[in-house]
Specification:
- This protein has 81 residues and is mainly alpha-helical.
- The protein has one domain: lambda repressor-like DNA-binding domains (434 Repressor (Amino-terminal Domain)), CATH 1.10.260.
- A two-stranded antiparallel ribbon has the order 1-2.
- Helix 2 packs across helix 3.
- The radius of gyration is 13 Å and the shape is globular.
């Protein structure tokens, strides 16, 4: 899939557990796992809004487009030049 979910990165930055995140967003921990593991087929805007509100971030902090046609070793790595 060309969309990579970065929820785990944002949770780690805030030292927030999946359980706490799930409760505050209004999701089950199982549904958070589906999102984190990239198995979700869609995300409602209301859910994305709740995740951003809880994590105090922007949608782009949680979702990243990765061009699958581009070789992995040439992709830009965030924070590296």
């Amino acid at each position: 899939m060309a969309i990579v979910v970065r929820i785990d990165v944002e949770l780690a930055r805030r030292k927030m557990s999946v359980g706490e995140f799930a409760e505050r967003v209004g999701l089950t921990p199982a549904n958070v796992a589906v999102l984190k593991n990239g198995r979700a087929k869609a995300v409602r805007f209301s859910t994305l809004e709740a995740m951003c509100r809880v994590l105090e971030c922007q949608p782009g902090d949680l979702l990243e487009f990765v061009d699958e046609k581009e070789p992995a070793d040439t992709r830009a790595v965030p924070g590296h030049t």
